[in-house]
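All the exercises in this workshop are built on plain-text protein records. The record below serves as our worked example for the rest of this section.
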Amino acid sequence: MTPATATPMRTRTGPIPTPTHEPRVEIAGRLGPRYDEILTPEAIAFLTELHHRFGARRHDRLADRLRRRFEIGNGHDPQFRDDTRHIREDADWRVAGAGPGLHDRRVEITGPTDPKMTINALNSGAKVWLADQEDATSPTWRNVIEGQLSLRDAIRGELSFTSPEGKRYEVTATETPTIVMRPRGWHLPEQHVSFTDRTGRTMAASGSLVDFGLYFFHNAKQLIANGRGPYFYIAKLESSEEAKLWDDVFTFSEQYIGIAHGTIRATVLIETLPAAFEMEEILFELRDHCAGLNAGRWDYIFSIIKNYRGRGARFVLPDRSEVTMTVPFMRSYTELLVKTCHSRGAFAIGGMSAFIPNRRDPEVTERAFEKVAADKKREAGDGFDGTWVAHPDLIPVARAEFDAVLGDRPNQLDRQRPEVEVQAADLIDVHIGRPVTAAGVHGNVSVAIRYIEAWLRGLGAVAIDNLMEDAATAEISRSQVWQWIHQDQATEDGTRITREYIEDLIARVLGEVERREGDRFDDAAEVFRDVALGQEFPAFLTLPAYSRFLTETD
């Protein structure tokens, strides 16, 4: 590729060309067995093009996020945009909709992409597998590249796995779920890959572009040959401008490998507060590549706390367990999502209940089934076309609720929900009227530290106290603690929630957990202190934790 020529600077001695460099991507991470099958020269050339063309725009969009968060924090509540009103008022446009293998999405299973979990997902009986390189994956270099190897092998029917105990896992299902891969969000770097731009500046690569680029380059044509396609879940979007950036990435990528425009299909997670005010605009910008939206409930709650953390006691949420999908502001968000999707021919996919069964405890399993069934019954009744589960045993439970509503229909796009009217104020009315309890505070500290400890060991989805925890639920836990402290909150028994109080709980949690040689609990407690007790509020706990620990230990 020939770099663009810069305009020369003129001095008294004549024109002096501005130095230019050939853009390049370099691999700094350790190369393990078969990594060369993923990190091929051709794939690296594609990553270079993605970063050269879109890296600067990514940084602009991240700067937009900071400005928007500053504005909300200083009293400017988000609104439906006046400058895009014409998009919302134009009733004629529609999104591309489902690609092959995506017309029936009634149950989707989520999970990381290690070989065992990949095989379990493909054997699960779900309609779709969300192959997660984001919140359910700890972004160690090994997980990033070996997850790509798992997907490559699975798509070609070549994946098998033998556990250290000698148990062999193979894909045995005659019909496997359609794979929808989720790359990391725009905010996350990949520090084991560097990009040098044409000015000679070197920086960490984008986790989004690395995850997307490697998967797409190696698998798009094979997926098409398999009768499916290159499909993606897009996480953490905050604006239609960010959606436009993804759409341009998709269009360029299709051209690069020579497949038809619109072959890619994306489902966008509406899991940030700003995005909830731009659902139609996000669909519009991605319309040639868009299949639908997903209600990412846990990150959405985290986003509300993050944006309103300094706006006073009326924006303080109670115990995490009290913030259910039936509280008014969460109902408004999901009702608006279904209405928006169906008016534009897009699928509305529900979120994940955190309750999971325990095959060794029938009572826990029965409770999980009851909770999940109620959650999925609500979603199906509200008009969602499908939903997420985190455990194979929950697939029949969720499927039964959607079957009861859908019958033989693959979806309910025809259900338009004209009766739904959601105002901007409805999305930010977070009053629930429940207290913060001592048990809730302890639970947040305990869950966050135990999750972070597992994350530092390379595990991204972790069962804790019979709930499935991932990065999003850990974010809720630590951000609530930060907000409770900074808003001078007290528990229902009158105990002030201070740094000292939380430090006592950290010590208590470290005394409660089972310590083993090589565990990361001390590091996890350090991370938790940084992101929950500091004066500043890191936008994502994964950013400092990744930079400090995962790049050093790989």
The chain has 19 helices and 17 strands. Confidence is low (pLDDT under 50) at residues 1-13.
